[in-house]
Amino acid sequence: MPPKHQRPYLPFGDLKTAPWYGKNILSVGQFGRSDLEYCFSVAHEMRIMVERVGTFDLLKGKILANLFYEPSTRTQASFMAAMQRLGGAVIPISEVHYSSVAKGESLPDTVRTLGCYADVIVIRHPEVGSAALAAQHAQKPVINAGDGVGEHPTQALLDTFTIREELRRLDNLNVTMLGDLKFGRTVHSLARLLARFSGIRLNYVSPEELGMPRDVMDEVSAGKIPQRVETRLDDVLPETDVLYVTRVQKERFEKAADYEKVKDAYVITAETMKAARKDMIVMHPLPRVNEISMDFDSDPRAAYFRQMEYGLYVRMALLAMVLGKA
Ligand code: NCD
Q: Which residue of 136, 139, 142, 177 sits 20 to 30 Å from the alpha carbon of 255, by its own alpha carbon?
């Protein structure tokens, strides 16, 4: 081997020694603090590399199967972009109506099939536990891109990375989650993940019928994180560092009338935000419907569009970790 100073600069560690090599990513429960720090440092490297060279061949020759049984714009496109920016290729299956699923094929058989062609499978599915089921049957690592009202771990990782990049800390934060906390899977994962840090306070603001599920709150309280439940945003907005707004999840309601009752429960406007601090940020996993007015988009505290970009770097990091290149 040539002496160290003559070797080409490689920002990433070498093959297959990485702790995440070949692992599924199903839940934020798999990520301890040191895993988060590792993932975010790789994501940060990815950001630098994308800014410098755009695309590079870290995963050249690798194939990702993107299997989406539910609508998606950002998650789907950012996994595709992540794989392509790393030099890999993608099998996109989003129109499951046109795949063998429409012929009645089971999820286990579908993922077994994709495992023959791809090195990693990303799956979004309407049922809780579907990603775990897929992982039991796939011979390749599975990444959960949202399992019904269950979890959305890669979103929570990118949300946490966004906070870290924007506010330069993950401890001592007052985080307010607003909107549909019952059906919104992103907040289920994010609350669990933030419970790893110290000095975190979580406020849950929602209509009574859309409150944070008990099991999530119990898990968070085991981490000794203070949690406050409110129906009015005004009570917590002035002290909030991160306002995490969510869409009311129309597709999860059994009765249209129940959705109509709560759909516009909260609308963030430039006026609302006068009561908030100057150094806080507003996040949203997107898509938004009416819950943040466009008149707030130009405010520097509106971090939701930047959040999408951070998602690319985090998904690049996760793919590199799972495929043994980080
Ligand atoms: C979220 C989801 O699918 O849970 N979207 C996303 O992945 N960015 C949020 C939502 O659909 O409201």
A: 177
CA angle 298, 295, 155 (to 5 degrees): 65
Q: How far is ligand 1, taken at its centre, from the CA of residue 50, in Å?
A: 24
Tell me the pTM: 0.93
User: What is the pLDDT, as a whole number, of residue 15?
Assistant: 47
pLDDT at 16: 56
pLDDT score for 104: 86
Closest atom, ligand 1, to C-alpha of 185? 4
Q: How many residues can be counted in the chain?
A: 326
Taking alpha carbons only, the member of 30, 1, 42 closest to residue 325 is 42
Residue for token digits 């692992």?
Answer: 23
Q: What is the number of the ligand 1 atom nearest to the C-alpha of 311?
A: 8
pLDDT at position 85, please? 98
What amino acid is encoded at 163 in this protein? I
Query: Which ligand 1 atom sits nearest the alpha carbon of residue 75?
Result: 7
Instruction: Please give the distance, rounded to the nearest whole angstrom, from the Cα atom of residue 8 to the centre of ligand 1.
Output: 40
- What is the layout of strands, in order, in the sheet containing 142-147? 89-93, 63-68, 120-125, 142-147
Residue ranges in the chain modelled with pLDDT below 70: 1-18
Residue 186 CB–ligand 1 contact under 6 Å: yes
Domains in the chain (CATH in brackets) are 28-151+311-322 (3.40.50.1370), 153-308 (3.40.50.1370)
157 and 224 in contact (C-beta within 8 Å)? Answer: no
Residues 244/248/253/255 CA torsion (nearest 10 deg): 150
The residue assigned the tokens 């040539």 is: 2
Give the tens place of pLDDT for each residue, 148-176.
999 999 999 999 999 999 999 999 999 99
Residue 5's identity, in one-letter code, is: H
pLDDT at res. 14: 52
Residue type, 93: I
Alpha carbon of 287 to ligand 1 centroid (Å): 7
CA of 94 relative to ligand 1 center, distance in Å: 15
Structure tokens given for 2: 């040539």
